Each structure stands twice: as structure tokens, then as C-alpha cells.
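Annotated sample (chain length 424).
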Amino acid sequence: MTQKSLTERDRSCTWHPYTQHGLGRDPMEVASAKGSKLKLNDGREVIDAISSWWTILHGHGDPVLVETARKQFETLDHVLFAGATHEPAVRLAERLVELTPKGLDRVFYSDNGSTAVEVALKIVLQNFYQNGQPQRQVFIALNGAYHGDTFGSMSVGDPDPFFEAYKPFLFECVRIDPTADALAKAFEQLGPRAAGVIVEPRIQGAAGMRTNTPEFLQAVREQCDQHGVAFVADEVMTGFGRTGSLFACDTAGVRPDIMCLAKGLTGGIFPLSATVVSEQIFQGFFSQDRNRTFFHGHTFTAHPVGCAMALASLRLCEERNVPGRLQEIGQRIQTRIEPLQQNPGVSHLRQLGGMVAWDLVGSNPDDCGYLSQVGPALHQASLEMGVLLRPLGNVVYALPPACTTDAQADQIADAMLALADRFA
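Output written by the structure step:
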């Protein structure tokens, strides 16, 4: 009997995220990973230029994080966080309170970015509900927003193209472009129904690496204060140095009322998220009445191993100046692909921190957006050049880990240049 390949076995029993299996595209067979590189089963090595969905921060298999996980597993592998506590969770909460913008004082743990956002939305709505403003039920979000795949996070995301099938089940949300005027008009439209504003600060990832300005974030803070509603910063992707500062809100000098963290929190190699909130919001739940409890929790909330790894990762961010290194990597790639400014098939070349992106105009201007037919072809072509890129439709971007060497950054840039030569 012929032994089946990993891909054949995979095809018979798995269902991959954000994948149309009917198109018959085979996945990479990944055997191992180290630093910025993935080793495939056929012996090839490819540079992980997108940090494995924007998570890997210091590099795959970072020895400090691996050893931290091993030690914590041997000490305390897991315990419920309802009615119990443990040193890694408390130490991490203390550290996050120190590092996040002043005024964020309480940490609620969950499992991933979507649930971190879900927690934030539920906190805002319940806080208003039980403190005399139950009419405040509508959030303002950005056009093209993506905040996750649970129902609350889908509601504040843009339904097109991901969530159209669920629209009857999603709560009301007003979407705007990232300008102060658009925000003011939304507040005027909603009046006392407004509950808050949720924003991916500085970079909207799944929307195609769209950027917004520090001035817009400052306007969000000012107008939320003016209307007495919550400013929720979704830093799931932008946190931990991706924009050149530890948190994207730092680049605008603003403090949100709630900050959602995940992905790079543990260095990107263990599932853990945190929703960090102001003491004022926490006090809206503090009571002798059990009905005012925040009834939300996950089985693996504040997992000790994840908390220990997050503490180690935060220490590495400081010791290795991860925000600064990511900025250097982004600028190096940007400088090398600068000739794309003269390519008529390329538009909106942009760089912020470790993110570099450009839009492929191509021969069909209508074939754009996440479902653009060119995306899979760009992905496959980049793999053939030894670089893992996963374009967002016609948007080609890189967001590599901080361990990426200058030579690897140049290889990423050369692959992006080659894609433009071939497809633009």
C-alpha cells in the first residue's frame, strides 16, 4: 500500500481557516521552524515574512520562551481562574498595567484576539445597561474593519466580504472613514444611543493594511470624552512594537478606555489575550449585588504557561528593543522597494513600523479587495522565491518578526519587487 503524503491525509480530514477547499490549492507542508524561517517537508526553507498571521514576534522557537514554557509546565500547568489565582497571571497583569497607557488598571484574560474584543464590547454594553444608560447600544467602527469572528466582533467588523451570511444576527454598528468630521457626524446621528468607538489604531490589518493618523486617534479620544462613551483600541495586531512603539496608541499619545491585546502578547507562540480596562469601568461592576457580575469566562483564562511566556516576551521586547528593530526592518524593506513608486501598476506604497505594503493595480482595476483573484497567484509566486507572503487580495504586504536579519529583509524586499515586475 502506497503511503499517503501529509497533504493527502490533510485533505481527507481537516478544515482550514479562511480557505476555500473547493479550489484545490494544497497547503505548505511545514516540518519545523526556527527564527524567521519555516522548513518545509520537501527540504525548502522559506522566510516567514508575515509572522504567521502577525503573531510571531521574536522568532519561531525563541529559546528564552521555550525554556520559560518548559519551566512553567513543570511548576503549574493549568488551574481555573474563577476563585483561584497564581503568580504568573498577577505578575503579568501588574506588568501590563505598568506598560499600557496610564489609566488602564484592570486586566481581564481570555484566549485570542476575537474574544479579547468580545469581552470589551460586552463590558461596555453591560456597564451602560446596569448603570442607568441602557439605550447606549451602538458602536462606531471604521469602514473595512475586522475585529474577529465571534458574533460581537463580527458586528463591529465590516460584513463584506466575510460576514454577509450572519447579518441578521449582528447588532447595529455605524461605520465611518477615519476622519474627525466623519466621527462627529456619527455621534450626531446616534445621539444618546452611542456606546463607544472601536478602532485598530494606526493600521487596519485585514482591511488591506490601511493606515490612520495620530490626529484621528486624538479626535477619537476627544469626542469619546465629549459624549461620555468608551474608546476601545483593538491592538491585537498593532501591539508589541509592530508600529514602531510598544503600542500603536503610544504613537498618538492617547489612552483608550479599553485595550485589546493578543497575537504578540506571548511572543506569538501560545494562545493568550488580555482586555485591559480603566478602573472607572471596573468600578461599574464592583458591587455587593451578584447580578452586577461580569458573567464571562473561558476554560483556559489566564493560562499559567501563557502568562509566564508573556512576561518573558515583554522582557525581551525591552532588552532587544523590539519596537526599534521592527522599525529598522520596515524602513530597510521600504527603502529597497522605493522604485515601485515609479511603477504604474503599483499604488499606495506605505510603511509604518515593521509593516510595508503596496496595492497591485494590475490590468483589471475592478479585481481588488480581499477576494481578488490575483492573491493566490501572488502567494504561490512568493513561495517559489523562498518568501512566505499571504497577500490580502491585491494588497502585498510584509510584517516579519524582529529576529529577521538584514539579508532576510533584503530577500523579502526583492521578492516584493519581483512580484511587481511579474504581475503589475
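Annotation: The chain has two domains: 6-58+321-423, 64-319.
Annotation: The first helix runs from residue 6 to 13.
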